[in-house]
Amino acid sequence: MAMKQGSSVLAPAPSFVMYEHIAKSLGMPFNGVQLNEDFSLDMSAMMAAIEEYNPAVIFLAYPNNPTANLFNDADLLAIINASKGVVVIDEAYQPFAGKTFLPRAKEFERLLVMRTVSKLGLAGLRLGFVVGHASLVEQLEKIRLPYNINVFTQMTASFAFKHIDVLNAQAVLICEQREVLLGQLSALNGVQVFPSKANFILFSLLDDSAQRVFDELKAVGVLIKKMADAEGLPPNTLRVTVGSKVENELFFSELKNILL
Fold first, then answer.
1. Which of 19, 61, 195, 244 is the most buried (most CB within 10 A)?
2. In the 8-state DSSP scheme, what is residue 101?
3. Residue 30: which domain range?
4. CA-CA distance, 237 to 180, in Å (whole number)?
């Protein structure tokens, strides 16, 4: 698994910023392929980039972060089949997506499906895991640090997975609240809301300032995320994490008042 000289990393853009940051910190070139306006994969551009750069690793967040949408399954399969390197499908937000590539991990020798317990409500554990073909996982074991997971984290995760139904039920409630909040935001004038299969909602302001709205929400104790000028996103874009019913109602009420 040693990276050859000239190896690179490829991912759609925008996507999880750490793909690029970590690639560059390891001295590897990173190539981002812009998504279509509806945040779907630009397959002609993706295939051209795979052909040109022959990336050692391709990252595909499923659902994508920060756009919250699921990419087309056929597109993902086409990328897996076209790649000569490793394809990592990052399912960090899978508990809210209702779809997964995990059962297909054994079908493709170069495919890894990556998960985390963070979005299940256990972010403080900082625990993630990958599932893949035995021949690929065997190579990863050669470079895995011997003390990368401490005993208390392992014990806590083991306990949590024995009670996974409780965590899954929590994810179901968040998904229900997500649909309510999507409907409320979509009814607001001057707000463009994007579909979500994650535990957050991306929306843009058509005739207002994201900075102004962000600041006024913060002033009343509601903190969301301002997406700044992220390439590939509309201007004045904000992202809100779906919380409890009370938290969501507070956010929406304050947002509505600010936009009046």
1. 61
2. S
3. 9-153
4. 20
- Asked if 75 and 36 touch (Cβ cutoff 8 Å), the reply is no
Beta bridge partners of residue 86, listed in sequence order? 57
The answer to whether the Cα torsion of 39, 35, 251, 245 is positive or negative is positive
Domain match, 120 and 29 both = yes
Q: Which amino acid is at 247?
A: E
CA distance 122 to 112: 22
**Strand ranges inside the chain, DSSP E:** 9-13, 30-34, 57-61, 86-90, 111-116, 128-132, 191-193, 200-205, 225-226, 237-241
Q: Are residues 112 and 200 in the same domain?
A: no
Q: Which residues of 6-25 are buried (b: 16+ CB within 10 A; e: fewer)?
A: ebbbbbbbbbbeebbeebee
Q: How many helices (H) and strands (E) does the chain have?
A: 8, 10
User: Quick check: is 4 in a domain?
Assistant: no
Does the pTM of the predicted model rise above 0.85?
yes
d(CA 96, CA 118): 12
Per-residue model confidence as pLDDT tens for the chain (260 residues): 445 556 899 999 999 999 999 999 999 999 999 999 999 999 999 999 999 999 999 999 999 999 999 999 999 999 999 999 999 999 999 999 999 999 999 999 999 999 999 999 899 999 999 999 999 999 999 988 888 899 999 999 999 999 999 999 999 999 999 999 999 999 999 999 999 999 999 999 999 999 999 999 999 999 999 997 778 999 999 999 999 999 999 999 999 999 98
Q: Which two tokens stand for residue 156?
A: 């806590």
CB 32 within 8 A of CB 42: no
